[in-house]
Amino acid sequence: AAMLLCGDVAVQDRDNHLGLHRADYLLRDFFSAWQGLTASVPVYATWDDHDYFNNDKWGIPAGYSEEDRAGVWNVFRRSWNNPSYGFGDPQGGVFFRTRIGPCDIITTDGRYFRKKGSFLGRDQMKWLETQLLDCKGPFIILESSTMWSDYVSNGKDSWGVFDPEGRERVFELIEKNRIGGVLLISGDRHGARGFRIPRASGFSFYEFEAASLGGIDWGPKAAVPGCQEQLFGYLGYAFGEFTIAADLPDPTVTFRLISEDGNVEYEITLPRSQLTPKGA
Predict the structure, then answer these.
(1) Each residue of 26-49: pLDDT tens digit?
(2) Where would you tag: which of 72, 75, 222, 233 has the fewest CB atoms within 10 A of its CB?
(3) Where are the beta strands (DSSP E) in the chain?
(4) φ, ψ (nearest 5 deg) of residue 258
(5) Contact 120, 159 (CB under 8 A)
(6) What are phi and psi of 241, to 5 degrees?
(7) Partners of 270 in the β-ladder
């Protein structure tokens, strides 16, 4: 039905060299496999640090300007066919909400508005809360370009290390309002991993990071030592697939991690009831 791409996706550490940003996208577009895929399947994308400026950069990095940030944003939004791009001119950003079949899709931007101690910035956080409360479908795919959990690399660049209060605000909103069917997806960590994120209430969120599809840059090991919450770990070319059965009394979602040779490396089926907080 559609493909969702979490950063890092196309550009590689081009900083404010906008011509090189455009060249990377041009090279992408020359590949016949990419041409065939995007001609037949809707593709939505968000960025992460390597698409943005460079490794672990956010906001307006030291030595750069607002003009540089706006320039990178303009190249990105002309290179992907997303439904919308953040707040648009002049505020920018690449977050959006759309719907694919029975799923609400909410994609966040953890780079453009980030400030110290705030992953999304004030206005995007308010936007996210409004969207979550407005969703009506049985499942919500909530995307962050970096990890929701803190298990990989000691939480390097994750929500919980960089903005624990912001993550708690999002999770508490979902639990308090019993927003069901939330599936967390993420990118950044150079490999495929899944985690359960347990909460004090007894509820658990499920996070799926399924990569890398187009290129492998060896990073952390597939398995996190001693992590009982890890569902799977895989290094190699792979992608993740959600299959939704929305017509059941208790709708289900099945996640599969599929390697380049077509093998299913991991599979789990979750009913919506299991993904629905019990409330206070």
Answers:
(1) 999 999 999 999 999 999 999 999
(2) 222
(3) 3-5, 43-45, 96-100, 103-107, 139-144, 182-186, 192-198, 204-209, 230-234, 238-245, 252-259, 264-271
(4) -120, 125
(5) no
(6) -135, 130
(7) 253
